[in-house]
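Researcher: Please translate sequence to structure tokens.
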Amino acid sequence: MPAPTLATCLTITAALGLAAVPQLAQADWTGKGEVGYVMARGNSDTDTGNAKLDIAKEVGVWKHSLALSGLYGKNNDITTAQRWDIRWQSDYKLSERMFAFGAARYEDDNFSGFDYQATLSAGLGYHFIATEATKLTGTLGAGYRVLVPEQLIKDAAGNVVQRIKGERSENVVANAGIDFEQKLTATTTLTDKLLVEAGSDNTYVNNDLALRVSMTGKLALSVGYSVRHNTDPPPGIEKTDQLTTLNLVYMIK
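Model: Translation complete:
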């Protein structure tokens, strides 16, 4: 029996994630699950899929957040994107607006020029605006990151035929984040999340901008634009990746 492709795994993961949403809601988790898929057939055969899960739970003075995402892209039988990442953060409330946090992030991106990036960090956060219509939170901290660079060797058709791993590096990083949410109307919400990790071997920047329109109390459509940037990938690797998505969203309340 042939091994399942990442596209199949991504589809199954998204289905299982959305199916688990009611159970998460019963456990007092709030947030959203998203899934999107595009298939084109004709002059070119293209498959692109992405799935996300972004949930949080408050327990007394603690708030725990989990973010998962996966991306797969294929064009004319050539894999063009293959990535998944996970981030966990726990916040401890110090006052009505200030909190301390600890976070862990892991990213595995087959086309970023890094075999993986893993970071543990801690710091302080502040809720600058916390109203029903507008929310703005900033974080600032420091951490420890491990990453392994990877050089991609491709054939004439564009297939990756060899991956040459570089020397593993470990160093201290400074990190900063901004989380913004603005209700434009009763059914329309604009969100933007920025994360920056700056170290001596690489600076990683990730920004996710999305416009979400609710169709029902549970379902919404989301148009997103994501930018990921690494300042020091191996030679031949683009520093910046951009992704535009149209996703179906299931709200967890």
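Researcher: Any highlights?
Model: The first helix runs from residue 6 to 19.
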